[in-house]
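Quick one, probably user error.
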């Protein structure tokens, strides 16, 4: 949908903001609530879901039912819903539920809209507690926060020994994937863990250089890809291919840093 009209672009952006507001209102009463509990979606490892996750996705779907009922939806908690427009909303109501449970404000609401080929056209990373909202695509690359609005712009080229790399878990993925990540991290200046989707926002805002993850789903990556690409960054799989459906993700501030990191991940 490369010929999208300005009116449709404006409508999609408006809908995304309305969904983000609805999710904020659904989530914040539960954050840092001493009575909050979580179920696990898996039996082998703890993969938490809370009432806040479900309430937020339900609230966002209600917005879509009212304003864009013709669009398809792919959500982490409630699955797929067919549509007729060729557009798909990809939703992760709380990316970083483990951080949410621990009271850490590094989780976020992820909202993206993708075309017929599931390539993200626009994405948003919203952190309700801090009050920061990052968005990119459809002509935008901007954030809003306590210090006011600013344009998103990823960092320029620098050597790996000057780079900051982030990942959610030190284990990253399989033993082989973990070894590849640590091979890269050993060449970087600083490695930090546990930021979930907030790491992608920091990359788009120009504060870090690399994010490396594995085992991701489409709802984990669509919004970050749109935001980072709009800010001038590069996001691919570990083979250099598009990563719109998830898997192993390498996000970099610029093509030069991406190329250097890709070589080490596959070295």
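Nope, works fine. Designed sequence:
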């Amino acid at each position: 949908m490369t010929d999208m009209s300005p009116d449709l672009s404006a409508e999609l952006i408006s809908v995304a903001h309305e969904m983000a507001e609805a999710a904020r209102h659904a989530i914040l009463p539960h954050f840092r609530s001493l009575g909050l509990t979580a179920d696990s979606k898996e039996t082998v490892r703890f993969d938490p879901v809370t009432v806040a996750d479900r309430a937020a996705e339900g609230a966002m779907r209600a917005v879509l039912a009212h304003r864009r009922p013709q669009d398809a939806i792919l959500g982490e908690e409630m699955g797929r819903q067919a549509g007729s427009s060729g557009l798909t909303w990809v939703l992760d109501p709380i990316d970083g539920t483990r951080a949410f449970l621990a009271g850490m404000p590094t989780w976020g609401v992820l909202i993206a809209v993708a075309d017929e080929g599931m390539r993200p056209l626009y994405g948003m990373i919203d952190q309700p507690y801090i009050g920061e909202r990052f968005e990119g695509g459809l002509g935008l690359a901007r954030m809003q926060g306590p210090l006011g609005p600013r344009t998103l712009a990823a960092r320029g080229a620098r050597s790996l020994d000057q780079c900051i790399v982030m990942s959610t878990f030190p284990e990253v993925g399989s033993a082989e994937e973990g070894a590849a990540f640590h091979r890269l991290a050993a060449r970087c200046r600083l490695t930090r863990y546990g930021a979930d989707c907030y790491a992608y926002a920091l990359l788009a805002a120009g504060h870090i250089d690399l994010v490396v993850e594995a085992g991701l789903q489409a709802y984990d990556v669509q919004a970050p890809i749109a935001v980072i690409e709009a800010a001038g960054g590069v996001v691919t799989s570990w083979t250099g291919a598009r990563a719109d459906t998830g898997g192993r993700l390498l996000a970099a501030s610029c093509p030069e840093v991406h190329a250097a990191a890709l070589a080490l991940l596959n070295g």
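The mean pLDDT is 95.
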